[in-house]
Input
Amino acid sequence: MHNAEIARKFHELADLLEIQGANPFRVRAYRNAASIVEGSSRPLEDMVAEGEDLSAIKGIGNDLAGKIAELVETGNLPGLEALQKDMPAQLSELMRLDQLGPRRIRALNEELGVSSLKELKEVAEAGKIRKLAGFGARTESRILEEISKLSDRDHRTRLAEAEQVVGPLVAYLDKLDEISRIEVAGSYRRRKETVGDLDILVASENSKAVMERFTSHPEVAKVASKGKTRATVFLKSDLQVDLRVVKADSFGAALHYFTGSRAHNVAIRKMAGENGLKINEYGVYRGRKRIAGKTETEVFEQVNLPWIPPELRENKGEIEAAREGRLPDLVEESDIRGDLHMHTSATDGRNSLEEMVEAARRLGYEYIAITDHSRRLTMANGLDAKRLRQQIADIDKLNDELGDIRVLKGIEVDILEDGKLDLPDEVLNELDITVCSIHSRFELSEKQQTERVLRAMDNPRFNILGHPTGRLINTREAYQIDLEAIIEAAAERGCCLELNAQPSRLDLAGHYAGMLREAGVLGAVSTDAHATDHLRFMHLGVAQARRGWMEKKHLLNTRTLKQLQGILAR
DNA sequence: GCCGTTTTCGGCCCGACTGTTTTCAGTCG
Output
């Protein structure tokens, strides 16, 4: 049983408990546990199997530890079955609808016998909901609207797409003279690989003018709510954008508050409480007196902490690290000396070798690697030994002409099903670098897939495992693979893992990057560019490295060319 | 249901907006 499934069961139990009217803090404990499980870098199943004490995890007590063990061992979550006997399990599904929370769902169930989405739709269409106390015609029509949107709701927006929306939107708002500061907060600022919505924070003394400008933006399809200090809109792309206006004196407190994560905020507020302070989005208060709030640094100072980079604010140890003065010195995009994965028009890239090199040179890189596909990927016109040798000759010639950038001869070679690499060692030996990737047989079992990669790593020509999970955000799940075993093997063999910076991949995000770092395996942040424009995705990969607490020293392509060559030689 | 360097009981983050009210409950973030 995967962590995600354990988390889903806990969420479901929390939903049903909440609808039933259980102690809200008990409900919170279950939700909190779900989020701990989701964020765990290790499968809880393994921890149970190894007899580890789950109650040692903060937020998991004796009761939950026992429930997790039973769930993992039997597939049953004690308590959930009992609840499901008393109430229809589909009720938790209704929680997915906006505007519908536990109280209303309970009312709908008790008054109208609603126990599923289908039944909800029927009573709404029959006009029965508007007659219930606390409901009205407005709510009824919104429920119908929500149901119709539900099917295409289930995806989050990729960070790169969000960036494309943010740029123009912020520029549009910033034209208003009344706005003194503007910042995008939320998971966007924490640089998560996907965002659920955008949270824009503005400092202004004239919130009315800001609200008017925001809600009348030409891309706004619908204004969901609009008050004096806060508004929510949906853009034509269906992306939700929340705007919050505060006075300049509160900007730092509000920025901290709206950057989150929620778990981080709760922890910080608790610390404030212990010091007799109260923190809200307007500032830090001692009694009724406001003592800080203009900058984020001020807010952190009040709880005796240095400023914490947003990428770390997940309440996964950053507060303790800050307190003990051991926050990491996170890698910056400017630390990157070269891009080690890109394609040319020889295979499925859009630009020629010369164009790719020129574009990389303009970015100021010291080196790059050309890594076209290998022969197995016929769809992409993959290179066989002969064509690869031609490219090697072309690159040698180019290197003779160029002074300021070194072009490494490489290949993105397929890892075949049996773990062999898709080109003979003789030709791989003529290269400076290999990126080894899986492009076929995604459906293999975890054991088979893992062994396939481990065998490939035994080849001393194996340098970097390309896009290690194979997931495509919102499109394709990661293949089943035991990354922990792979990372361990990489540490022994001197292999590296890629942090693929393609907007739809970003597949060593957050906790996997953390695993890499802890195991002492170097990450290679690479764009996998298929066109000169794609070289600019580097910052997305660097952001994921930062979310994994990585410093310059944890990455391969922050090294000098000489150091790099030493590592590639294994 | 969790947690504890004052606590094994009694707390648990808190403000904004909407819709349905006529002073507030429910929901959200």
Residues 333-568 of chain A form a domain with the TIM Barrel fold (CATH 3.20.20.140). The mean pLDDT of chain A is 91. The CA atoms of residues 3 and 38 of chain A lie 6 Å apart.
